[in-house]
Amino acid sequence: MSKELKIGLVGATGLVGQIFLQALSEREASEKIKINELRPFASEQSLGKKISFLGQELPIQTLSDGCFKGLDFVFFSGGNEVSRIWAPKAVQEGAWAIDNSSEFRMNPNIELIVPEVNGDNLKNYKSPQVIANPNCSTIQLVVLLKPLLDHFGLEQVIVSTYQASSGAGREPQQELLDHMRRYPYESEGLDPQNKSDYFGQSLCLNVMPMISSVEASGFTGEELKVINESKKILNHKFLISAFAVRVPVLNVHSEAVWVRFNKMISKEQMFLALQNAKGLKLIDSNQNVDMPTPLTVTGKEEVYVSRVHQDIDDPSTWIFWVVADNLRKGAATNGIQIAEMIMG
After folding, report:
1. Is 236 a residue of the active site?
2. What is this structure's pTM?
3. Which of 67, 179, 204, 253 is catalytic?
4. DSSP labels, 253-271
């Protein structure tokens, strides 16, 4: 990118907003982008506060008519209600709106983009638009599925997600840390009932088999996001089911994925497809010390895949372990990559 960009960041004081700032700083330092101006936006509660960015102390601004004028891109991480009102206004004022909420994801008139998967769709637009950033678990899943679809086709996908506390935000993540600190000092451990403001039960040494509310179908909203968004992004008809679990991990989502094909695939074919895939890092090892895990992948921008093997009873099914930083590739990095593709 040779152009000096003017960027807005809505939700600048939130957990994802802070990762946006970090990722933008890194890209500026590596000369991948040049940022001429950054306008941080947050709620009125943050008015008077400042954020540090590239050696400057920038005052937090609140949203108002005309606040996006002169900007090239506005990244939104302020929630659905904020995006619903203000993302279209950003476009009206001349900026591309890249939205991290779920507000526009399934809108048939708005692109849902993972650059390595369907970034070419952005070539259809010559003027600013609202572009939706997918769910974090969806992003890492489709980065795996894209090369499989291109090389072999897809018949059925089953995914179980193991999602970190950071996916719920800064306060839930902090609550987990607080409970972990308290646990050794409580003689009988933490009472699982009514001990969490965010997860129903304490997440400390626990797992929760629900993320968001259960719909009439029996699936949670989080699971339906993965199912529906994956179909939209890949633009392909295949069977897909998901089960989402919250785990006592600070950051990085993991997934166990079963993919069935309508033909037999050799190990050599499978590994060649994965080795050459965009945004995907294949770890070819059966040693725990080499496995991508939340501890080893946090802060990374790629999607990692390992434990690649065929199912014993159904050799047309392959099984994968997929790990990615939900705040990086699952949110901020993916949004920035969208902007980079738009700029060319």
Report:
1. no
2. 0.95
3. 253
4. EEEEEEEE-SS---HHHHH
